[in-house]
Amino acid sequence: MAAAPTPIDPRGPRTNQAVLAVVLVLGFLAGQWLVVPAFGVVLFLGAAFGPKWGPVLRFYGAFIKPKLKPPVELEDPRPPRFAATVGVAFLGASTLAFVFGATTLGWTLALIVAALAAAAATTGICVGCEMYVLLVRLRGGVRVVTIEREESELVDAERPERKGEWKPVPAAHRTGHPIWLVFTTEFCAVCPRIVEQISAQQPGDSVIVLNVAEHLDLASAYKVRRAPTVIYADADGTVIVRLAGAESVRAELDGLARESVTVA
Questions:
Q1: What are the pLDDT digits (tens) for 18-58?
Q2: Confidence of residue 15 (pLDDT cuts 50, 70, 90)
Q3: Do 16 and 120 reside in the same domain of the chain?
Q4: Which of 135, 157, 230, 261 could hold 146 in an S-S bridge, CB 3.0 to 4.6 Å?
């Protein structure tokens, strides 16, 4: 099995997505369809050859990133690269529609890309990234996990060390029992099964399901960038661990089960 690629700063792809969404919308409002193939090329360069070749990604790395604090977490580059590839396909189809005079179809395809890019940039929920994770799971491939930065140390989110300094769970969500906050979206097919698995394996704990769209402030505080993202906290609301992705949650549940057997 090939080694996992070097993780990346997730703020780079989100900057790319934000610029893409803004330019496509401005192009639509101005009636300038040539922005579609132009940004199709921009996406293609970054997806095919990496951040050094993507103009927006390169600009972020050279001029924006040095002015920011180190990222709280890093992410696997494969899901955002796959999402960019999907965007290239849509923009390519849009360009062909414009060339053949199907203006309405062309702008429809382009604005779908703009909407998904804007959602990813503002909420961190990347539909293309989730498609990649689903395909990997279906073919039984390598797990895709988030890597968090804690005190200058990279921690694998499949089994992160429990020493984070995340914001405590708000009092409104505390029940006097250990808490599992499950951040989900209407597009997350695996989230209901994860909720069922947590409830089945940790029957004494409280499981609270939160729709990202309805809890943007809390999702932002916990850096939710994919669904499901799960916050596991003790009865006092102190965060024990943050888990990004279904495989991370399953790994944590398996670890808790092993600990329970050992104690018994």
A1: 999 999 999 999 999 999 999 999 999 998 988 889 999 99
A2: very high
A3: yes
A4: 157
